[in-house]
Design brief:
- This protein is of the alpha/beta class and about 180 residues long.
- The longest helix is centred in the middle third of the chain and has 16 residues, at about 95-110.
- α5 links the parallel β2 and β3 (about 120).
- It has helices at about 15-25, 40-45, 50-60, 75-80, 95-110, 175, and strands at about 1-5, 85-90, 120, 135, 150-155, 165-170.
- Strands 3-2-1-4-5-6 form a six-stranded parallel β-sheet.
- The mean pLDDT is about 100.
- It binds magnesium ion (MG).
Amino acid sequence: MIVLLDQDNVLADFEEGFRVAWRERFPEIPPLGPQQRKSFSLKLDYPPEQHEMVQSTYCSRGFFRNLPPVLGALEGVRGLIDAGVEVFICTAPLRHFEHCVLEKFEWVEQHLGRRFCERMILSRDKTLVDGDVLVDDNPRIHGVRTPRWRHVVYDQPFNRQLNGVSRMTWENWREVLL
Ligand SMILES: [Mg+2]
């Protein structure tokens, strides 16, 4: 079995990392908490006059490298590998790729080891990537192909409006994936 794991908000905690980085840059404006997040696009949850500030925060040098791991994610990856699953990371880099692309590799090297970087697939179109399962917090994944993989939604507050889908966290991954 091939399992494709999205990186942000499945392995790397983009949401928490953003709140930390935002507080450092704009201490006078509290960041949105998890329960205030309604849209997959973080920027769209902030008022239009703050969109530039949101983008400059996650496009800054060091942002992606310093994201904390999602709770249980690193243990989950090891558990999948131990269960004989072929695990790949399938991640769509930002259009502003300047720091993001390199730092995504640096994050994987730091948390999963350099050899795991061989298992990184960077694509803005995940339907082109083959696999049995894609675990992704994005509730709507579109592209030029009809994918062979089954989409398992990684549960996040902003994707809970989507019903009738297979859903997991690193607490229940065994029941969902194995
Ligand atoms: Mg994601």
